[in-house]
Structure formats: C-alpha cells, structure tokens
Design brief:
single chain, 368 residues, 2 domains, 10-stranded mixed β-sheet, binds 1,4-dihydronicotinamide adenine dinucleotide, binds 2-OXO-4-methylpentanoic acid, binds magnesium ion, metal-binding, Isopropylmalate_DH, NAD
Amino acid sequence: MEATIGIIRGDGIGPEIVTEAVKVLNKIQVVFGHSFSFKELLLGGASIDATGEPLTEATIKEAKTCEAVLMGSIGGDPNTSPWYQLPANLRPEAGLLKIRKELNLFANLRPAVLYDSLKAACPLKEELISGGFDMMIMRELTGGLYFGERSLEEKDGVRIAKDSLTYTDVEIRRIAIRAFEIARKRRGKVTSVDKANVLDSSRLWRQVVNEVAKDYEDVELEHMLVDNCAMQLVKNPQQFDVILTENMFGDILSDEASMVTGSIGMLASASLNDTAFGLYEPSGGSAPDIAGKGVANPIATILSAAMLLKYSLGLDEEAACIEEAVGKVLELNQRTLDIAGEDSVIIGTEEMGNLICAEIKKGGHGNA
Ligand SMILES: NC(=O)C1=CN([C@@H]2O[C@H](COP(=O)(O)OP(=O)(O)OC[C@H]3O[C@@H](n4cnc5c(N)ncnc54)[C@H](O)[C@@H]3O)[C@@H](O)[C@H]2O)C=CC1
Ligand SMILES: CC(C)CC(=O)C(=O)O
Ligand SMILES: [Mg+2]
C-alpha cells in the first residue's frame, strides 16, 4: 500500500517519541512491503518559533492531503516557557484545539489496557486487577468547555473569568453512535459519563445517548456521574468496556485511566472524523520535566502509530503485529523508568524503540 503520513514532532519529549514511532512504521513498510511517505508538519511551540503562530493554514492544508497524521505532544512548561507570555489564542494548546476543530476530529479513542507483565507498575492492589482490564475511553473532542465562549475581564476591581459549555444534540449523537458501534465489536457495554444531576448540557447528553441506545438493544447502557466514575476507575476498573463522555471529563478521566495501566506513557489515542482520516498522538503531554533526557516512554506513540495503521489505512494485521511486539518487549522486563519494576533493566527511549522494531516480524506473531 502507498500512503502519505503527516508527522508532527511537537515539543518537549515529542520529537524523541515520534522518532521511535516513525522507526516502527519504517520497519512495518519493509516487513510488509508498503510504501509510506512522510510529510513533516509544524504545530504547537515549534510552529510558534518558526512562524509566529501555533497552527498555520499551511499545516492544515498539508494535513488534509495526508491519509493520516502522527503527532507527538505539544506545549511547554507554563511557568518558564516564553510561549506562555503570548495571548491565549497564540499559545501551543490553541493550535492543537484548532487543528482538532478544523479537521472535525470529534471522536477521540483512548484505549486503556493493562498488560499482564505491567501489573506491578499499576498502583492498585493486586486483587483489584487480577483479571486485567481493557477499556476504551471515547471522548468527544470538538465541543464542550474547550470550545465555548470565554472571557476574562475586570469590573469594579473584581476580576471575572467565564468559560461556557455548549453541546448540540447533533454533536452528542455522532459520538454516541461511534461508541455503540465500537462497543458492539468489544464486550457490548457502554458507560456514559456525565454530570446530569447538575448540568443542562449533561441532561441533554443523557437524553440523546438514551435515544441512540434504542438502535443498539444488543449493547448494555449504563449512566454514571463523573465524580463516581473517577472513583470507580480506581475501585474496580474491570467493570468498564466503553466509557463515553464529553470533552473535559474525557480529558481528565483518560489521564486517570492511564495511570491505572502503569503510566501515561502507555496510553495511545486516535482522533477521528467521519472519514478514514485521523490524527494519532499519545494521550499525555510534552513532559517538559524529562524532555531531552532520552528517558521518555515511546510506547503510547508507537501504539498510536498502530491505531493509525488500523483505523486510517485498514492495515489490521500490521497494527496487531506492533501491539504484539510491544507485549513481547514488556515481557523481557526491559523498561523505561516510568514503568520499571524492582528487577527491571532500565532502558531509554531509543532502546525501547529498537527492541520493539526487532520484534516486528511477519508471521512471527499470532496475527501476523
Ligand atoms: N495532546 C497534547 O499535546 C497535550 C499537551 N499537554 C501539554 O504538555 C505540557 C506538560 O503538561 P503536564 O501537565 O506536565 O502533563 P504531561 O502529560 O506532559 O506530564 C505529566 C507527567 O507524566 C510524565 N510523562 C508524560 N509522558 C510521559 C512519557 N511518554 N514517558 C514518561 N513519562 C511521561 C511527565 O514526565 C510528567 O511527570 C503542557 O504544556 C500541556 O499543556 C498536555 C496534555 C496533552
Ligand atoms: C490542550 C489539551 C486539551 C490537551 C490535552 O490535555 C489532551 O488532549 O488530553
Ligand atoms: Mg489531557
């Protein structure tokens, strides 16, 4: 297969982890006989430094010519980076939000899976995770609080900040349909998470999810308030199959779920629109505290590349091959710092990428 893949290296650990994911995609090309061409694109802090804007029209235009885009995280340390002296609409995060909106990437899939060999890295008690867990967080990505009207003003010596949270039934319905479709191919359960005891937007969310559920009688639906969900994720993560939720709740709950898998460095993500196009990135940030040290975990980005192959290019076998290679390497007990156990051999970002590449062999794994 021939495909053009946009590459956004991003900021902080972004370039380090993306390098390893591209290495893995290159190995897939060789082993499976594909021809990928990579197009470098700018976003976030790197784009501000080069162009003065966190996202240019050129990046949007070029991204639209690609089958998919792979991205490292963007942003810097808000306390020290000069990017945060700029007005809010010119900071790195504004570029990320804008590209999601411009490309209509409303469905954010964040799979949180506990690998057997990573049980020791999970902070929960053994009896809570003995059976492992495998959940898919479906986060609405182009509506809600991050895209509402906002203002910051001073009146009579009082500073007032406003952020507004709006959802239409159309926005809720399309992500709910995606969630039910995905649940159907998994264990057949959707937990819709909201704050319907307080918010009108959540009451509409619940109504529309109930309407959509009528077309999916084979899928079990439960509603859960977000504060309870935050608690249940650490009390009994095994109960979840698909968690369907709005933008900000999904942002917060997915970071929490990532830690239960061992580390934010393990959590991949796919941001999809209603075509095959997608933007694929680790769920975590640019980790300025460890940037440039060669210690970041590249697995979330490598698993995001696997999602790219599966969801945008339809290369399921190749995606499974990457996932299995990751599982195999974790069993070797050679680990980056964030997932290391007592007797692990600590390795860096590049060595982790190399080990995963070495495990990518056609026919070498169950599905390949
Ligand atoms: N999608 C994106 O591009 C996102 C960007 N950000 C931006 O990232 C910057 C830093 O944000 P933080 O709140 O510090 O969150 P963060 O996710 O970057 O870091 C939180 C903690 O997780 C660790 N961590 C993250 N990824 C890791 C990896 N791959 N391997 C090992 N450890 C890892 C970090 O070292 C840090 O201790 C900010 O500018 C923020 O706006 C935050 C979240 C998502
Ligand atoms: C700019 C933020 C909304 C990024 C983030 O935290 C995320 O996508 O998880
Ligand atoms: Mg986040």
